[in-house]
Specification:
This protein is an all-alpha fold. The chain is built from 3 helices and no strands.
């Protein structure tokens, strides 16, 4: 929902407050759910479960970053096509 109401004129403090609320809520959900998931394992598998959770967290973060960069690049490409004078190249090609 936040992404649908943000614009170029949204004040920075509103973005910061929205992210603070988002990440506080995220931490209040993720920590108990991960603890509950690991509590289902026998005691001798706690280390393996923790390693699996950490690995999954890292892989999901990397995949999410790759998807976000792909979407940003596609959006930037369509913006440059729609408004060709919007961004002049910093390094001009030598002719």
């Amino acid at each position: 929902m936040f992404a649908s109401v943000i614009s170029a004129s949204t004040p920075g403090w509103q973005i910061i407050v929205a992210f603070i609320i988002f990440f506080l809520g995220l931490s209040m959900v993720m920590m108990p759910s991960q603890a509950n998931a690991l509590n289902q394992l026998p005691r001798e598998l706690y280390a393996d479960g923790s390693a699996a959770m950490n690995t999954l967290n890292q892989v999901a973060g990397a995949a999410g970053t790759a998807i976000a960069i792909t979407l940003f690049t596609a959006g930037q490409g369509s913006h440059v096509v729609a408004v060709p004078a919007a961004s002049e190249p910093e390094i001009k090609p030598q002719v």
